């Protein structure tokens, strides 16, 4: 997915290029001293099912002097894969970029060249502990997988019973976060979401639009699962807000007492009663301005404030 690509890109991109981005200084310092030169991106399914965008993929493939390796066998498509690509321009474009990268890559990396290896159809079975450093990883024991399922977009990975080891010194997982149930709310354990229609929470997981919990709404990953990019979150929020607006206009949210609800002032009072200190937009603007000022001193777009104390100090 996109997060995995982001992590790999940060680990592999030359630090002299990162120095002029808004990366936090402490992170840049750690990367400057890093000895990482080879990254493996491992996925349970195939390149057709890669859950990333073409934009993110192009960014990492465009890193200067980067050796990219993709196994030819992993690029073989099934008829179901072909159908899946016909139905998705994004998946088709991602596959094309991966195929082009594989075709244009040299057979071996040059001396000192950083390496990115895409490995598909593998799922982790166990971590291998280092014999030299107790408590440290020395590799991952993978099981090879094959795709099963009922058609395009519904293929899933199953183990084949064949295993292989991959040597490494660090493992990072990037498989999304499954939401947990909220007390008192229905929850779809399979999808990891609160059942809803356009953000309106349902009374159960049946999907029946007539079974709506009036006045209760959901947004984000709890609404749709751990998918998408920043723009997806914007659309998701807009959809839920639109549902709230519609319900307000139709009187669905009328107070049972007949009195008007306290609205924003009521929320602020509730936060105050609970000793919660909100940061208004005007305070965020102060933070944004200070980060830009600090960044200008280092030829960066921003110098991020990374502690709660520093953020509040600037916000007040």
UniProtKB/TrEMBL annotation:
Gene3D superfamilies: FAD/NAD(P)-binding domain. The keyword Amino-acid biosynthesis does not apply. Its cofactor is FAD. GO terms for molecular function: oxidoreductase activity. Signal peptide: none annotated. InterPro entries: FAD/NAD-bd_sf, Ferredox_Rdtase. The keyword Flavoprotein applies. Keywords: FAD, Flavoprotein, NADP, Oxidoreductase. Coiled coil: none annotated. This is Adrenodoxin-NADP(+) reductase. It comes from Citrus sinensis.
